[in-house]
Amino acid sequence: MLKVLIADDEVKVIQLIEYLVDWSAFDMEIVGRVHDGEKALEMICSLEPDVVITDIRMPGMIGIELVQKTQEAGLHPFFVMISGYSEFEYAQKAIQLGVEDYLLKPLRKKDLEAVLGKILEKRRVETETSEALGALTKTTKQAKSKLLTDVLVNQDLTVFDLSRESFYERYGFHLPGSYTECVVTHLFPGMARGGETGTDDLRFILPKLEELEEARLQPHCHELISTVHHNEIISLVNHEEAHKVHILEELNKLKISVLNYRSISPDLRIAIGVSKPVSSIRQIPSAYLDAKQTLAMRFVDEDRFVFLSEDFFRTEDAARSLLTSNARKTLLTRIELMDADGYASLAEEQFALLKEHLKETGFLRDSYKELCELFIFGLRVFEDLPSELTASAAALEPAFNLVYTFSGLQAYYIDTCRNVLLRCADEKKAMEDKPIRQAKQFIQEHYNEAISLETVSSEVGFNPAYFSTIFKKSTGQNFMDYIKEIRIDHAKDLLVRTHMDVAAVAQAVGYTDIKYFTKLFRKMTSLTPTDYRKLYG
Q1: Hey, how many other C-beta atoms are within 10 angstroms of the C-beta on 445?
Q2: What is the dihedral of CA 46, 51, 56, 58, to 10 degrees?
Q3: pLDDT of residue 137
Q4: Interval 418-433: pLDDT, tens
Q5: Helix boundaries (H) for 30-150
């Protein structure tokens, strides 16, 4: 069943269109009704209707602009324009954009039904043709895409040992053009604290963007293969050198399409890295790494969209390290002390040093990785770290390929580390307080018995001297003073709620000597047990 979206700023017009024909008879259903152009574009991107019936003039975006932006987003529903205007230029422009038909208001049932019937027939022919061509195209594309999967994803370099005939038979791919580059279109969904990302949205966006990228580049290429892997589209383009300018123009136009997907993923950003040209298939892995490293230049120029390897001078020195031994030692000490603010301050200093090396993409990436590994190493001093904190720390390194700006990467790293250390401090305090909580519970259950410091410390698994120290540190009271307070509180309760005599109350809370009980009660309440009962009972 075909999905239909109706867009018109007049409610009555939408109602008229809805009730003018029997939609089920055309195997169609209305899935959306919208009253302005911008919301219409959002609904087209999210619902992907097969047919859009739209007014030529609407608030926010006119009908022809809606058609253009829909096509730029890589979507091609059947458009039917309706208008109260009969100007020829509107009809002419609509037809140039591939609009199915142009109807004047007031709409007539037979005219609308004729258009819907034509759409059905056209859809039937397109379906039959595309199924035949699609099967062949899909098989060919899958074979070519498998090359990128085998080499770049599965790291299978044995394919380069194949003879030219065997290679072509397996992948159906060769390089007739003089210019071959790897293009990596990387989507950055952004990250929230704790490692949450918008990658679920990318499962919908990436295949659509891959189709659009192929459609734009194919006319300028001898060969084009692509595959989707994680957050990126990896493409290998083979063309004549003279077509390089057209390739770059088409890549830059993709930015408009990404902006249209912001309604689905508001934080979405994109960067495209283009490698230096290579001359043989064996150089595909190095071209891919070159394009990937070029993506880091987004930190240098955040407003740029397409980054060319040849445009940047980058120094690489694997032997260099941003972290001095003193810096490592200081950072590890802050972690061990769970000094969240102190670690954050030191990390800011490291990022300030990193910022001076943004054009050294390899050094930048390795230095950030070193910072992440250092933090994870420092957390090893904590036993039984909660899994969510381990996951937060593990999400630090992947953030390099998920966050678009350097300032955003810095903020994410520092915010995550700071919050992990704060949680570690809370966990440690909770662990230290656990035996105290156990001791308090034991005392509440046995306060009327002959309990001692030795009895309770043994119950929670500590020696008496250490237990006495941590008990006072946690409660602010000596152990025996705490016992006395608990017993007297229970005695006050019994004196108020019951008619038990004072001797029985003393016995009930653990005192056999009534004189000592009375003296202690008066010391702690400034009243004798009898006077307390008279006053509060």
Answers
A1: 10
A2: -30
A3: 46
A4: 999 999 988 877 777 7
A5: 37-47, 63-72, 88-96, 109-148
Neighbour count for residue 61 (Cβ, 10 Å): 19
SS3 of residue 342 by DSSP: helix
At 106-158, the pLDDT tens digits run 888 998 999 899 888 888 887 776 555 444 445 667 777 788 888 887 888 88
**pLDDT value, residue 194:** 47
Could you report how far apart the first and last alpha carbons of the chain are, in Å? 80
Give the helix/strand (H/E) hosting 81.
strand 78-83
CATH topology of domain 447-536: Arc Repressor Mutant, subunit A (1.10.10)
Q: What fold is seen in the domain 2-126?
A: Rossmann fold (3.40.50)
Summarised one tens digit per residue, pLDDT across range 3-60 is 999 999 889 999 999 999 999 999 999 999 999 988 999 999 989 999 999 888 888 8
CATH 3.30.300.20 fits 174-301, yes or no: no
Structure-token match 């709620």, residue found:
497
In Å, how far are 223, 285, 294, 362 from 310, measured between CA atoms? 22, 17, 9, 15
Burial (CB < 10 A; 0-12, 13-18, 19+), residue 315, is exposed
351 or 81: whose pLDDT is higher? 351
Query: In DSSP terms, which residues pair with 236 in a beta bridge?
Result: 182, 225
Tokens for 74, please give them. 């890589």
R_g (Cα) of the chain, nearest Å:
36
Domain residue ranges in the chain: 2-126, 174-301, 325-428, 447-536
C-alpha–C-alpha distance, residues 172 and 159, integer Å:
13
**Average pLDDT across the chain, whole number:** 86
One-letter identity of residue 35: H
* The one-letter amino acid at 209: L
What is residue 96's predicted lDDT score, i.e. its pLDDT?
Answer: 65
Closest CA to 8 of 95, 101, 84: 84
- Residue 152: DSSP 8-state: I
Contact 528, 518 (CB under 8 A): yes
Beta-carbon count within 10 A of 54 CB = 27
Q: How many CB atoms lie within 10 A of CB 364?
A: 24
On the CB side of 307, how many CA atoms lie within 13 Å of its CA?
27
- Note the pLDDT tens digit of each residue in 236-276: 999 998 899 999 999 988 887 777 777 667 778 889 999 99
CB neighbour burial string for 494-526, b if at least 16 within 10 angstroms, e if fewer: bbeeeeeebeebbeebbbeebeebbebbeebbe
Q: For residue 102, what are the β-bridge partners?
A: 81
> In this predicted model, what pLDDT tens digit does every residue of 291-330 receive, in sequence order?
998 999 999 888 888 999 887 765 555 557 788 888 999 9
Q: Which of 181, 178, 162 is nearest to 170 (CA)?
A: 162
Q: pTM of the prediction?
A: 0.59
Question: Could you give the CA distance from residue 255 to residue 140 in angstroms, rounded to a whole number?
Answer: 28
